[in-house]
Design a protein that fits this description.
By secondary structure, this protein is α/β, with parallel strands linked by helices. 35% of the residues lie in helices and 17% in strands. It contains ten helices and nine strands. It has helices at residues 24-32, 41-59, 67-79, 82-85, 105-111, 124-137, 149-152, 183-190, 214-228, 262-265; strands spanning 93-97, 116-120, 142-145, 158-160, 163-165, 174-178, 205-210, 230-238, 241-248. The strands form two sheets. A seven-stranded mixed beta sheet has the order 3-2-1-6-7-9-8, sandwiched between helices. Strand 2 (116-120), helix 6 and strand 3 (142-145) form a beta-alpha-beta unit. Helix 2 (41-59) crosses helix 3.
Length: 279
């Protein structure tokens, strides 16, 4: 290859991946959550997990390499958000911020075919995997957006007539995220994507998969939530952790999210939370 020649696109050979069968424990835990799978759902979930594990060496997608643990820590963990999204109307839009290897977005797109998912991921290799996985799985309700959350959260689209077209700021009915950072940071990266309340109706919701520090992080995030005009609705205990649900009560102030990296360097409200849920 010539020194300045463009690199060929990374091919993860996902068509070769054979579905991994769900362990009995997964099916029991899913049943306890009230999850009901349509024919073919567990096969697609198992194929996605196989793709994730097979592509891991090329793109560093997950620290979990055991299939049984993958069913619990990746697939089941992602599907704990189904209950939160269940009340959304058909065709509602959901963005997965910091999708990484497609978690929770791809399992949710499989389990919730009536919703439209956008997977936001800044890293090129991971975004390439997401594109190829979506095609290999035949998902029609899923797309990839390669961008940083700070930039996409300020993307208001272009003016058109009396309004704007395109863009991602305040465009989504729901925002989901998993293992991206502590809530004071994560709120700034997610809340701007949720729709603002309009016409007396509710604003968009934000559902965050968190770990044992969820309560402490929420306390640290109180100033940030006030600044972002969001409130804590509920925290749900799940077999794999906790789901923190926020709702938007007003338009996001135009200054947020701040420039690339700034939310992590200087969390809103000067919180000192430590990172993610360890996944």
């Amino acid at each position: 290859m010539a020194p300045n020649a463009p690199r060929p696109p990374l091919d993860f050979q996902l068509a070769r991946a054979q579905p991994l069968a769900p362990p009995a424990e997964f099916m029991e835990q899913a049943g306890a959550l009230g999850l009901e799978f349509e024919p073919g759902d567990t096969d697609r979930l198992g194929r996605f997990l196989a793709m994730l594990l097979a592509a891991n060496e090329l793109a560093n997608l997950t620290a979990i390499t055991d299939p049984a643990k993958g069913w619990e820590r990746h697939i089941l963990d992602s599907l704990t958000l189904v209950a939160v999204l269940a009340e959304l109307p058909e065709g509602a839009s959901v963005i997965d911020v910091g999708s990484g290897g497609g978690l929770p977005g791809i399992p949710l797109a499989i389990a919730c075919p009536s919703l439209q998912f956008t997977l936001l991921e800044p890293t090129g290799k991971k975004a390439a995997f997401l594109h190829q996985a979506i095609v290999a799985l035949g998902l029609q309700n899923c797309r990839v957006l390669q961008a940083r959350a700070e930039a996409a959260g300020q993307d208001r689209g272009v003016k058109s007539g009396a309004g704007r077209e395109g863009g991602h700021r305040e465009r989504y009915d729901a925002v989901v995220s998993r293992a991206v950072g502590p809530i004071p940071v994560l709120a700034e990266l997610t809340v701007p994507f949720a729709k603002a309340p309009a016409g007396g109706g509710p604003g968009g919701l934000i559902a965050l998969i968190k770990g044992q520090r969820a309560a402490a992080e929420l306390e640290e995030a109180a100033p940030a939530l006030r600044m972002l005009r969001a409130v804590h609705e509920t925290t749900m205990e799940t077999p794999t952790g906790r789901v923190v649900v926020l709702s938007k009560v007003g338009p996001t102030p135009r200054d947020y999210p701040r420039r690339d990296g700034e939310p992590s360097r200087a969390p809103l409200g000067a919180g000192s939370a430590s990172g993610g849920n360890g996944r």
